[in-house]
Write a structure and sequence with these properties.
By secondary structure, the protein is an alpha/beta fold. It has a single domain, classed as Alpha-Beta Barrel (TIM Barrel). The chain has an eight-stranded parallel beta sheet. A three-stranded antiparallel beta sheet has the order 2-3-4, with no helix packed on it. Strand 2 and strand 3 form a beta hairpin. The N and C termini lie close together (about 10 Å).
Length: about 325
């Protein structure tokens, strides 16, 4: 069966020394200290160690073959978003990363699909780079963060970017990053265990109650990590929409529960009951395999949870490739 993994991350094998180039810090550097292993650092502090599969397409293909994954959708590591940087510098970083992803896809068009990144701190430059991603680099869409600095995704200044994505048919993948309350959530890795689900729900609520998806009915948006805490708390959000319309229904006339049949999510929920809940609430045509490859909090064997559940063949086909292809706007036959 064709298998498409919509949630994977990639880096170039080398990164420019942007801090030296731009004259201020905060940018990621990649230091190869031993074969097959590199350190991501920010201003000399370790952010994460990554292995060769994070930058080597040949190694990725080997591991995909071993796991039965035919196609990976490539996006940058969220720490690379650089929304805090000066606009022109964020634009340069985005172009460098997008050129790299496009190069990998061109070299292996049946194995990889590309999503670009955008300098969302400058909506004009973001829309310009979105056009380049789709029209010049042949990427299928973009990955963005769950917020942009102090702005939620419903901020009016960001709307032109989403409008342009709808106009050019670009898929949008929303990934949590720079979590709310991150200092308070440092113990026990809570930024990733608690903060990320909340961040994703923040993004869903911003785009739904904020009226963005109501105004852009053809925009195809997918959210990482099973939509975070949004699907599990949609009843509470719906109750707020009903009982306090003066606060919750200010910019949207649509019950937020209805968006469970409009948005897409990946299946990265780590629990069969949670995945069955998503299927019951959203339908299998709204849920797609996503592994967070190659990071440890992802699914070590992409698709293992889906295969373990004994789902009907038609549901497995949705989860493994039909939903992904619909969100990306591609035909399954493209991958042979």
């Amino acid at each position: 069966m064709l298998t498409v993994d919509i949630h994977t991350h990639i880096l170039p094998p080398e990164l420019p020394r942007w801090a030296d180039r731009f004259g201020y810090g905060g940018f990621v550097e990649l230091a190869h200290e031993r074969p097959g292993c590199a350190r991501m650092t920010i201003d000399g502090r370790l952010f994460r160690e990554v292995q060769e599969n994070c930058w080597n397409p040949a190694r990725r293909i080997e591991e995909c073959d071993a796991a039965g994954v035919r196609v990976q959708v490539l996006s940058t590591v969220p720490v690379m978003f650089s929304y805090w940087a000066r606009s022109e510098h964020g634009y340069e970083v985005a172009r460098f990363l997008n050129d790299h992803i496009a190069e990998v896809v061109r070299a292996h068009p049946r194995r990889f699909v590309g999503l670009g990144t955008l300098p969302m701190q400058s909506p004009d430059l973001a829309a310009r780079e979105l056009d380049r991603c789709v029209k010049e680099l042949s990427l299928r869409g973009v990955q963005i963060g769950s917020h942009v600095g102090e702005l939620n995704l419903c901020d009016p200044s960001l709307f032109p970017v989403f409008r342009r994505a709808e106009e050019v048919g670009a898929a949008v993948f929303v990934h949590p990053w720079d979590m709310l309350g991150k200092k308070e959530l440092e113990p026990y890795w809570m930024q990733w265990l608690v903060g990320m689900p909340a961040e994703t729900a923040r993004a869903v609520v911003s785009l739904t109650l904020g009226g963005v998806l109501e105004r852009l009915p053809r925009l195809r948006v997918a959210f990482a990590h099973g939509g975070g805490s949004f699907p599990a708390t949609v009843g509470r959000i719906e109750q707020g929409f009903r009982c306090r319309p003066d606060l919750c229904a200010v910019h949207s006339t649509v019950n937020p529960r209805e968006y469970l049949r409009r948005i897409y999510v990946d299946a990265l929920v780590h629990d069969p009951r949670a995945l069955q809940y998503l299927l019951d609430q959203m339908g299998s045509d709204r849920v797609a395999l996503g592994s967070d490859y190659p990071f440890p909090l992802g699914e070590a064997e992409p698709g293992a949870l889906i295969r373990s559940m004994g789902l009907p063949r038609s549901v497995e086909e949705d989860l493994f490739f039909r939903t992904a292809c619909a969100w990306l706007g591609v035909a399954p036959e493209q991958f042979g």
